[in-house]
Specification:
single chain, 115 residues, alpha+beta, Beta-Lactamase, five-stranded antiparallel sheet, 5 strands, PAS-like_dom_sf, PAS, PAS domain S-box protein
Amino acid sequence: MKTFDDMKLEIDVPFVMTDNHGLVTYVNDCFTSVFGWSTDEIKGQIITVIIPKSFHAPHHLGFSRFLTTEKSSILNHPIRLIGITKDGKEIPAEHLIVAEKHQGVWAFMAILRPL
């Protein structure tokens, strides 16, 4: 089975990883090109910087619920959402969000294919 680290090397669409606190831990070059953030600017930021404000509360609720129950209705299948660039532009994108547990701690990965 491929791990997140294996997948990072093979993806040529915007890709972002977060830790179990929702902090960005990795983005690929395609993410920086499309979303306008440099790696240094986005790393350590809460993932909601690329989520529309109207979705912040549902995101936090769903994220907290998942960490408590380890059940999700959005993981592992594509969903259409909006991503926000550094300059505030909205980008419709198909998101594929997956989660992986390492030594009891969750990490999250999202592929953000612009539409």
